[in-house]
Structures are given as C-alpha cells and as structure tokens.
Amino acid sequence: MRKKTQLIHGGIFGDKETGAVSTPIYQVSTYQQEAPGQHSGYEYSRTGNPTRHALEELIKDIEGGTRGFAFGSGMAAITSTMMLLNSGDHVIFTDDVYGGTYRIMTNVMNRLGISSTFVDTSDLSQIEGALQDNTKAIFIETPTNPLLKVTDLEAVSNYAKEHDLLMIVDNTFTTPYFQNPIKHGADIVLHSATKYLGGHSDVVAGLVVVNDDQLGEDLHYIQNSSGAILGPHDSWLLMRGIKTLGIRMEEHEVNTQAVIEFLKDHPIVEKIYYPGLEDHSGYDIAKKQCSGFGAMLSFDVGSEEKANELLSKVRYFTLAESLGAVESLISVPAKMTHASIPRERRLELGITDGLIRVSVGIEDKEDLIADLKHALG
Ligand SMILES: *Cc1c(COP(=O)(O)O)cnc(C)c1O
Fold it and tell me: Could you tell me the maximum CA-CA distance found in the chain, to the nearest angstrom?
C-alpha cells in the first residue's frame, strides 16, 4: 500500500457490523460479559476501546511498528514511555527537545530517580560523551525546535544497538508521512498528535508505536495501569485528521517553499533555518532519511523591535504556540516557547530575540506571501 492509501485504508477500515465506512465512536466505559471473565475482547475502556483500538492499529501501520497506543496528550505519551524505565536509569536527550519533555525529565522524572543528559544529538561524539554505565535510552527529536537541527537516525540507531540502549524518537515535526524512524532503527516512535496528525487545532492527543512485542506488552501494561488514555471521541477526530495527512503535508510543503523563496530575497531577513535549504547543516541527512522537509521554519529579523513590528502587522499568521494545523501560526521562541531558558543560554543556542518561528499552513500561498510582504515592509 502506498502512503496516502494507507492513511485511509490502514488499520481497521470502517465497521464490519454495519458497513459504515467511518469507525463508529464507541462512547462506552464497560462491556457485557457472557459469563464471568468471558468477553468479546473488551472489558473496560481504560484497558481497551474499539474506537481507540482502530486508531492504535492505524498509527501502528503508518509508522511500520508492531503495536500502537493512543494517549490523552503528547506529554502523556512521553511520560508513559518513560515509565518503561526504572529508578536509577539514565537517558540521553536531544538538547533542544520540546520544552514539556525537558520539564518532566528535569522536574518530575529526576525525583523518581530517572536522570537525563541533554546534548546536541546531531553530533554523535556528544552522545558518546554523555554515555554512562546506567544509560538505558536515547531520546531524539529531529528536526528540532526552533533551529531545525537534524539528527542522523541510522547513525544513532547503530550506536544504540551497540550499547544496548532503547532508541526513542519524537516524530511530531516531520510526521509519519515524511519520516518513519522505525525504518531507520528506532525502537519507539511517538507523536504529539495534537499537531499535524490531528491537523485542525481541535484535539489534544499523543500516539506511540513500538517495534517489539515485549515492549508492546510492557507499554500496554503501563497504559492500562496509569490510565492516560485517549477518549473515543478524540480518537475518532484523530482518525478523521489522519485521512488527509498526505494531501495536507504536500500542500504545507509547497507553501513553505514559496514562503522561503520570498524570505530569501528580503533584505530584513538575516538568516533562515529550514532543513530543505542546501546550506542548512542537516540538509544531507534530512534528504537521506525523510521524503519531505516539512513545513516548520525559523528566520531571524535581527532584533526584538523588528520581530514585534512584523507580528503586529500579520493577518493570516496567527500569533500562537503550537504548530502543524491548517492555519499558519507564528511565534517568537525567545518570548514564548523558550522564555524559560536564560537569555545568555538562548543566545548561545542561536535563539535570538529577533528569531521568528513559523508553522506554514495550507491557505493560498499568494495570500501568505502578500501578508508577509506587507508585515515586513
Ligand atoms: C507539542 C509537542 C509535544 C507535547 O505534546 P502535547 O500534545 O502538547 O502534550 C511533544 N513533542 C513535540 C515535538 C511537540 O511539538
């Protein structure tokens, strides 16, 4: 099955009982048993729900793993995945991972005895330098936010296998339409499905796919024990979103190319960060491991004043955190998503006060460019 076909026909297509082509929303908590302990596969919806199951089968197929899981948010997915580890374990993370991932590792998981080190995983020698006797996993985000740094998944996977480490990849930015980390050796891939998979800024959800039956058993045990499940209605909304992921991603990318062509020639724009640009540090690797470069980009206008002026004038780029939806979103990482990082550290990383991050939507590209043209003056 090709990709766009799989987004529609993967998992469990429709409903066998009635012929409905869309999976019904099983808004139910418990299931009648024929005799004590004898049931049709469902006993209680924390353990399993048919609508959630259909979504879990779909994401499993799309990512090419052995089992899928749906959680109440991306962070619930990440937290539950971390529960596969034990007190005393250590994890190596990409240094500019999603802020919420950084927060739970450094303020919550550390209290439970799981420690972390954050390094630039696009540089394998930094991973080597962070390895400890108790290191059990590597957690990669590629490309990263907001500078779009790219990590070589195959290189990290080889290293992880040599050292018996679990390799976990947050695939939210590139989406399974453009990148399938399991094919490059990852053991676990996870998503904030709130972003591109949902795609319409109307649902908060998280998905995990594992590539090993035992990991699947273990994660289901955790999902059922901790209970951070996705409800049936949100599961259905997510399946509805996933059906159009392919055409959305293609349109997102066409628009991104057009926006970049415009920004490249604009005198105010000092630097553009996008893995699809040949002079971007991650271009070759992104080209090797992704079938598309995505629709997230950042650019530097040089100062906070210029950034503020731009933001006050844009009309179709909505000032908001989050990403990956049909509407274009714009943000200033230094003031928003990365405000908690001390300014000095931010500047070291390249997150200047004039850096602007854009999630390019699927509006008409001519309108997006006209909007930017007007706002940049
Ligand atoms: C948003 C996001 C998360 C967290 O997901 P929620 O659905 O907001 O809990 C994790 N990783 C990345 C890369 C994200 O963008």
Answer: 74
